[in-house]
Design goal:
Helix content is about 35%, strand content about 25%. It is of the alpha/beta class. The protein is globular. The longest helix has 17 residues.
Length: about 400
């Protein structure tokens, strides 16, 4: 670049207009037709649709098998079998940093510009997976942002030593305190939450907790989490991941919990998993609960599906939600782009002057088509730097 300025010329914006986009210093400087700044590196957008970079708000980079030869799925249908299978296969796999890097490259080439990844913590692996993702975070700093959650896969109380390992991981640089099913995994709702909030206060970090528990257990967990979040003054700093129980509860219970979540600034991360109840995305958003999306497991020992494409994830969320109109499909894209930015405290203005120059182009005429058909990507920019072209990561 001659003066650090890049001009992405000849693209279509989500409102249907044609425009050029001038980027410099990691930000978008100007958006409009007929831009021709002197000294800028000019890239032709080919008339493709330009969209804000997407964020994978819930993924397990350390678990993925991306880039490896195909492996038949060996685990049984329940979570205990998946955990045991993963433990048995882990020693024979390439290092987690290598596998995570494979997925990051692939997902960035598909338009992802940031990730929130959970990294397993446990007595058998210590903090090695957090160390691996810290390595990945540094290696891809120019291509994507990465938040790391210290995730106690086996529980906190049920796996002695996990609390101390999480404490160590947070001191090393993990960004959030993780948790998992206080009732179903640890058998002690208050006991696990006491420890998670203690770590959050000690390290001045937020919390992102997996709540898979169905029925009354999951509903109690979300209610207690909302109450504790408000009491601790952590509004906007705690996330419920999954929350399947919200998709299968009586209307009056849903309304009560949705109100509590909105009051506590408690967002929901969902992956729209096909075998579990889906929390009602539109109803939650209408009641003031932020909902964002992530791929969760991407081709790993927990399941054979996925390639890191967040447009496919937005399509699956739309399909399961019964979304068909262009407006509803736009909601699904918001869950993969602006909504996680709002949750993470990032600029959510999208393609606008002054916003971060994180964007991609896609072979679609409209935003709705991009979600429904998830067509090939063109160019991907992170902070104004070209990081991928035509589905290939450039580094």
């Amino acid at each position: 670049m001659k003066d650090g300025t890049t001009l992405l010329a000849n693209v279509r914006l989500a409102d249907g207009s044609r425009a050029d986009i001038r980027m410099a210093g990691g930000a978008i400087e100007e958006v409009g037709p007929g831009l021709d700044p002197a000294g800028a590196e000019r890239l032709d957008g080919g008339g493709l649709l330009a969209l804000p970079g997407m964020i994978d708000g819930h993924v397990h980079l350390d678990k993925t098998l991306t880039g490896l030869p195909w492996m038949p799925h060996p685990a049984g249908p329940d979570r205990a079998s998946r955990i045991a299978t993963e433990r048995g296969l882990r020693a024979g796999l390439p290092p987690p940093a290598e596998r995570a890097s494979n997925l990051v490259r692939q997902a960035v080439a598909l338009g992802a510009t940031a990730f929130r990844s959970h990294a397993d913590i446990g007595p058998d692996i210590g903090v090695r997976h957090v160390e691996a993702l810290l390595e990945v975070k540094a290696a891809f700093a120019d291509a994507a942002d990465l938040q790391i959650v210290a995730f106690p896969q086996y529980g906190v109380l049920a796996a002695p030593g996990s609390y101390e390992l999480m404490d160590e991981a947070l001191a090393m640089g993990a960004d959030l305190v993780g948790g998992i099913d206080p009732i179903g995994q640890d058998g002690d709702l208050d006991g696990q939450l006491d420890l998670l909030f203690r770590l959050a206060a000690k390290h001045d970090k937020g919390i992102d907790i997996h709540i898979h528990d169905p029925g009354e257990a999951g509903l109690r967990e979300i209610g207690a989490l909302a109450e504790r979040t408000s009491a601790a003054g952590l509004e906007g700093c705690v996330t419920v991941s999954h929350g399947f129980c919200l998709g299968a509860c009586p209307d009056d219970v849903f309304e009560r919990l949705a109100a509590a979540m909105a009051a506590a600034g408690l967002p929901l991360a969902t992956h729209g998993g096909g075998a579990s109840p889906l929390p009602p995305v539109k109803k939650l958003r209408e009641r003031g609960v932020e909902v964002f999306v992530g791929n969760d497991d991407v081709r790993d020992t927990w399941g054979p599906y996925g390639n890191g494409d967040l447009l496919i994830r937005a399509m699956l969320l739309s399909w399961r939600s019964g979304f068909r109109t262009d407006g509803d499909l736009a909601i699904a894209f918001d869950c993969a782009a602006a909504a996680p930015r709002r949750v993470f405290g990032h600029d959510d203005r999208g393609i606008a002057a002054g916003a971060p120059a994180d964007l991609f182009t896609v072979h679609a005429e409209t935003l709705a088509e991009a979600v429904a058909q998830h067509p090939p990507r063109g160019l991907v920019f992170k902070a104004g730097r070209l990081v991928a072209r035509d589905g290939s990561y450039l580094g």
